[in-house]
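[SOLVED] Need 3D model of a two-part complex

Original post:
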Amino acid sequence: GAVVSQHPSRVICKSGTSVKIECRSLDFQATTMFWYRQFPKQSLMLMATSNEGSKATYEQGVEKDKFLINHASLTLSTLTVTSAHPEDSSFYICSATGGEAGANVLTFGAGSRLTVL
Amino acid sequence: GNSVTQMEGPVTLSEEAFLTINCTYTATGYPSLFWYVQYPGEGLQLLLKATKADDKGSNKGFEATYRKETTSFHLEKGSVQVSDSAVYFCALQNTGFQKLVFGTGTRLLVSP
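Solution:
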């Protein structure tokens, strides 16, 4: 079945640095990828939707310059948290659609836990 | 707007007990409803879904019925196993859109 891999699974960084999280579809071409953020005991909040080769569409309230999303190929999307601060610490999850499952079935990555010191 | 409300966890049960995790929703139109499960260290996996009123989704012994009159999609299992310990998310998706709206998740802990 469809598999989505996220890397790194955990990252700790110092305040002010930038962190890049990768999301790869391993066995299918992902026409659309989604990035979610999850706070403790809260639901997954959609941050942005990215389509290969075009600019990401951000949800209201998400800072585009803070969370840079690049969907350069049909198998890779990256989320870069720029100038990270402690309040950016969170669990980031990507999902992708495409492949045999079709456009309306989402496959999720295992998530990346970011801790900013 | 669209929203999903789940019961707070954790839900702690003994093996072979009956499970219910409540989920209610608010949506415009006629959404599809989903239950996702997240095992420790893994990504969310689709557990079951229902696309219209009175549909019943089922998988791995879990069931949920799309109740339009009560705007609910409660998850049930007749006899839980230790391996069912995970976080369960209820979600909705409006027709024609790929975006999912999630509930807060409910952690299930099953002891032997």
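Edit: Chain B has no helices and twelve strands.
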